[in-house]
Structures are given as structure tokens and as C-alpha cells.
Specification:
- The protein is α+β, with helices and mostly antiparallel strands.
- 25% of the residues lie in helices and 26% in strands.
- It folds into 2 domains: 311 residues, Rossmann fold, CATH 3.40.50; 70 residues, no CATH class.
- α1 packs parallel to α2 and α6 packs parallel to α7.
- It starts with a strand and ends with a helix.
Length: 410
């Protein structure tokens, strides 16, 4: 589980920004909205299975997910390139906030609190400037009450010190300035606490609505079960297919291009239709459902930019509710996504602490806050029974100042 994500000076986010997936205690009673859907640790702390970010174009929604995707990628990418495929290490791009003479020369910082399982929580920090890692550390603690925080390693620009639990003779602390030390340790040593942390990063699913490469998963051996689950969920969502196949396009042995053909059974007769001729919604759903199944099965964090794009609101709600159903989400999977679809911005879909807003400030930097943080004219929290979508369009949440102008346009 992702517990909390803190970052600073990344693209449009200048100031320290906190994205919190810990549920708010004041609405955690047994009768609270979706109380049964909350994820629970061994210490009885509760976390959100779903978080959505709304806001205007250019407000910073996607940059929040880019920040989260970046820190996941910077840990995982060297492992994939060096340990598994032995390719050369390549850089992962990022940029600081540039509309400020100070910020553009300051480092970019990321902090993650996460729980690979119910028994342990990690805190990972990394600071970078001009692709160079200035500082990095990894701490962990057992989630049982009274457990002490253990230092696994601490890194500064000129030194790396190892915690007693992982320190071994002849361990190398001389590492490339662009290589995260957590990745280096995983590649070169077999340390259980490091492997557990890295495995959490590796299980994360980070997607953009335009990415269509799910066929690579089906090429892996033993994925017939995944195929059957995809067909079942597609049918549950109202897309009636009885199967699908992959068809090689070219006869060239070096060309791996394929077509995906969906099987439709009509009056007991089978027909195949190329996925590219299916509706945009069917294409989107077919490409996102396998990742949803993988996340739910592995208990992974799933991050999707513009999940609502090309999806009917009922299909969007269908995916959301998979993560909020404790009978389906048995492994503490989480879904974080951006959306423009306010038809799902309702108390029947989300708690107030699951809804976030991103907007631009006067200095062109982005701000992020949750619906739970907003107070009404009497200083009270927004009621769980409120019409979230209506109040949002009225400008009461402050994250989209343009809607009202457009609605009043004559």
C-alpha cells in the first residue's frame, strides 16, 4: 500500500506537496461511507483503496501522477536494464519548477511511505538535481506498536553509510551518481529488506490512457487464467466477447507486429473483429482490464492518467468499484487516477478524502488539496451526502474557475 507521497519542485509543483492515502479518522466509523472498503494494516491504520484527482487542464493533475511515476521508474528502470537485460543504464527525464529564479536551481525531492505487506512500512527519500542524486535514504519499521525505525542506508553527495541490518564486509558504496542506491543493492546483493522494498516498486502499474501494449502480458507462459478473467470482466462490463486471439501481421520473422481479434459469438456462430474496428470504449476497456486484474491479484498500486478517457461513466464506475469491493480487492490493491468526468464525482462513488483537486496558483505553480480539507461557510467539513458534482460546477471547491465563465457565456 502507498501510505503517503510527498514531493517538491517537480514540473508545475514548486512547494512541498503532500498526497495522502491515509483515511481520515473523523469519518472512519462503521457507518461512514465505504468504511468497509478501507485497507487495513496490522496496526489497524486504515488506507484508501482509490483516489481521484480533478481539476482544469494545466492545473497539475497529470504532473502529480508523473511525479509518482517518476520516482517508481527511477528505482525500477536500472533494475530492468541492468539486472534482467544487461543493457546500458539510461536516464529518466524530469524538470524542476522553472517559473522561479530560485526553484529552477534547487533540487527535486521525493518521499514515499509505503507498505509492501501488513507487517512493515518503509520510508524512501531521494533528492536529485540535473540528473545527479544528491541524497537518498531508506528506513523501515514494523507496523506493530512501539517498533523502532531502522536505517537501511543513508546517502549524501559524497558518502553512503549502511545500517547495521544490511552492512556486510566488502559491500560496495561506490555507485554511479545517477544510480539509486536502493536499485544498486537489489541488483548486486540478496538482502531481504531491500528486495521487499524493491518488489513493491516493481509491482506498481503506471499507465497512460494512450498506452496499448497489453498483448505482451498474454505472451508470457501460464497466462491463460488472465485471459479468462479478462473475458469474464469484459462481459460483466457489458462488452460481450467470447474470446480473443493475436494474429501476426507480417511474415517477416523480425517483425513482431500483431493484430488483436476479439471473438463474438452470435447465434452460436463465432465471428472475429479486429480490435481497431471496435468502439473506442471497447478498445480502452480491453487494454485497461488486464492491468486492473494484475493489480488486484498482486495487491499493486495502479496509477492511470485520464482513466475516464473514452470510457462510458458506467464503465469508469465499474473499474472504481472493483477496487472498493473488499470481496474482490483482497490483497490491498490501490487505484490512483486523474479524471474530467464529474458524473462519478458523487458520494455514492467516493468518500470526501478520496477526492483531490489540482489547480494553478497566481505564480503558475500547482496546488493540491482534498475535498475533505474544504470547509463550508460555517467552517464545517463538506458533508458526505453533499452533491459533490453540483458544488464543484458552482465553483465552491475552487479547483476549476473556468467552468462558471463557460456556463455563463452568451
Amino acid at each position: 500500500m502507498l501510505c503517503q507521497f510527498i514531493f517538491k519542485n517537480f514540473y508545475s509543483y514548486k512547494n512541498e506537496t503532500i498526497f495522502d492515502l491515509q483515511s481520515e479518522n473523523s469519518i472512519n466509523s462503521e457507518n461512514s461511507p465505504f468504511g468497509e472498503s478501507l485497507l487495513q494494516g496490522a496496526d489497524n491504520k486504515k488506507f484508501l483503496p482509490v483516489s481521484v484527482i480533478y481539476g482544469p487542464n494545466g492545473g497539475g493533475k497529470s504532473n502529480l501522477l508523473k511525479a509518482l511515476g517518476f520516482v517508481i521508474s527511477i528505482v525500477v528502470k536500472p533494475i530492468l536494464l541492468l539486472k534482467e537485460y544487461r543493457y546500458e543504464f539510461t536516464d529518466v527525464e524530469f524538470a524542476p519548477f522553472v517559473f522561479d529564479e530560485i526553484s529552477k536551481n534547487e533540487p527535486t525531492e521525493f518521499t514515499l511511505f509505503f507498505r509492501p505487506n501488513e507487517e512493515i512500512e518503509y520510508k524512501y527519500f531521494i533528492s536529485l538535481k540535473n540528473e545527479k542524486i544528491l541524497s537518498e535514504y531508506l528506513y523501515c519499521k514494523k507496523t506493530k506498536s512501539g517498533s523502532k525505525t531502522v536505517t537501511l542506508f543513508e546517502r549524501t553527495e559524497n558518502n553512503i553509510s549502511l545500517g547495521a541490518s544490511i552492512k556486510k564486509a566488502n559491500m560496495n558504496t561506490n555507485v554511479n551518481e545517477k544510480m539509486p542506491y536502493i536499485s544498486f543493492l537489489h541488483i548486486n546483493y540478496n538482502i531481504e529488506s531491500i528486495n521487499t522494498a524493491v518488489d513493491w516498486f516493481r509491482r506498481c502499474v503506471v499507465r497512460n490512457y494512450a498506452n496499448y501494449d497489453i498483448e505482451n502480458y498474454f505472451r508470457l507462459p501460464g497466462n491463460e487464467n488472465l485471459k479468462n478473467k479478462v473475458i469474464a470482466l469484459m462481459n460483466d462490463a457489458g462488452i460481450n466477447i467470447s474470446g480473443f486471439i493475436f494474429e501476426k501481421i507480417s511474415r517477416d520473422e523480425n517483425d513482431d507486429s500483431i493484430d488483436i481479434l476479439l471473438e463474438h459469438t452470435v447465434y452460436n456462430k463465432k465471428y472475429f473483429l479486429n480490435l481497431k474496428y471496435e468502439s473506442d470504449g471497447t478498445q480502452k476497456l480491453f487494454n485497461i482490464i488486464p492491468y486492473v486484474i494484475i493489480a488486484l491479484t498482486q495487491g499493486s498500486l495502479m496509477v492511470v492518467d485520464e482513466l475516464d478517457a473514452k470510457l462510458h461513466p458506467k464503465l469508469l464506475k465499474f473499474i472504481i468499484m472493483l477496487f472498493k469491493n473488499p470481496d474482490i480487492n483482497k490483497n490491498n490493491a490501490q487505484l490512483i487516477f486523474t479524471s474530467h468526468d464529474i458524473s462519478t464525482m458523487k458520494s455514492s462513488v467516493f468518500r470526501t478524502d478520496e477526492i483531490w483537486f489540482a489547480c494553478k496558483l497566481e505564480d503558475e505553480s500547482s496546488d493540491l488539496y482534498s475535498l475533505y480539507e474544504i470547509r463550508d461557510e460555517n467552517g464545517n467539513h463538506i458533508q458526505p451526502s453533499a452533491a459533490f458534482d453540483k458544488q464543484y460546477l458552482e465553483g465552491r471547491y475552487g479547483a476549476d474557475p473556468y467552468f462558471r465563465n463557460m456556463m455563463d457565456w452568451e
